Amino acid sequence: MRSHCLRLFALLALSLCAFASPGDDALTLNRKVLDACFTQKWDEALTLLAQLDRLQPEYNGTAYNYACVYARKGEPDKAFEWLGRSIEWGWGGARGSVATPSLQATQSIWHAAMLETDADLESLRKDERFAKIVERAKALQKRAEEYTAEPALYVPEKLKDAAELPVLIVLHEAGGDKASTLAAWKPIADELVCALAVPAAPFSRGEDPARGWAWIDDPSNFAQPGRTKDYQQPVNAALDALRKTKKLAANRVWLAGAGQGATLALLTALHNATLVRGAAVLDPDVDLQQTGYKVPGAKAAGLRLEARFDPTYWKARGGADATQAIVAGWAFPGSCSALAEVKDAAARRAALAAAVRALAQAADDAGNATPAVAPK
User: Fold this and answer.
1) Same domain, yes or no, for 123 and 165?
2) For the chain, how many structural domains are there in total?
3) Residue 364, number of CB atoms within 10 A of its CB
């Protein structure tokens, strides 16, 4: 009997997460989708996918899996409808892996290659529509490869002759991009006299470039302990790019991020506390399995944390009080607080910039020889 393997981003370990409730629900639903597909209960799988689609609207992995199920059911028109949506929502601009009944994932491959090899889609490949789908996926892959080739960097003129570089790494919210983020944060880099790096987020959010880029493909994929280093890779690449120019200043490497960018910034800081001396985060999700065990060592290394929570951001998601309590309970040097109502993106950026300034001021107060704020 042929095995039936459904391709999913969100496949593997169900972990102890403090992600907002939609992510937690998706973990369970993904497991149920897999179970239904492995037992060829296609209608049940469709019902579960509909629930996932409501929880995670416009998620390309769900759309792709819809297409796989409809292809198995012998409904090509619906399969192509969902393949089209998957491409529209970014399928093609990243990598994925294959799930098996034992929940062991195969080697990660580009989405276009998955389209061409996925047994679930075998019945569609002779249809002239299929080649067009693959072509669109490969176009997204090309765009992703070009975009992620290098980070966006800026070094203020005042550091031209400096022996070493203070560094601020900024991770934008989901839907942002490195160019506009670099432009928005240059004034802060000039003010603090530090090099600025904006890593290249690896996940395209859609065929329309205006949909931007994301750091995390799916919370349950992000929660896999074995993938931690993979998600940190863009930050490491940005640091390596700066190291090629000058030595990085001890005690002045800071990470900042908002939303999804905050989630990755917090994780990266906790896992690299001997290098990253401070993190400023606005509305991070927290995965306890990935972060909790790193807290004692990060505190011992002297990591400083400035965490902010926007009630407006969390209102529709739930979980703010619990997440804020977790972060506050870690009792890092710094502060953890709720903000007054934040009305727009500019206000969110200003709140995060204020948290970064708190990191810089703390470094100044600790007696670092290099001023963090330019003399006026």
Assistant:
1) no
2) 2
3) 13
